[in-house]
Amino acid sequence: MIIAVLGAKGTGKTQLALALRTWLASQAFEHQEHMGPNSQVWDAPTWPELKALNSSLHSPNLQLLLMGLDLPHSNAIQTPPAQIHNEQAQQDSALRAQLQSQAWSYGVVYGLGESRLEHALRFLVPQHTPAARWQGLCEGCSDPDCERRLFTALKGLKAAESQPK
Known about the structure:
single chain
């Protein structure tokens, strides 16, 4: 598998690529069935590189991760935050347009620090945890029979209201 990390300038793509390489070095053996033995992480490949990769690989072997625009701006940079945000938004829009024009699927990665890596891994490694159970409105009851009674009663009220008088 080749993981390509894309994003506008200042969105943390290099940090995520490094974190993914470190994770691959320590954890890939456990996930070799899904990831493949020779997984690589590409940090901000150029558009021609991506097109060449996609044409030479089967699409499941190329995973694209697009960085979200949620990182705080550094105070060390002299550029006004509004200008940085506008530049990032323009770069992000251009990347998304290119990806959509090629009909390539991609995951958008958000979060700070460790949560950013965890979010990226959700796109790359199948999750075997059960979905969270819906929590009901009535004091956390979540009893299916209780829900059925509630919705049946609500349907009955609606039907009674719609009858001509």
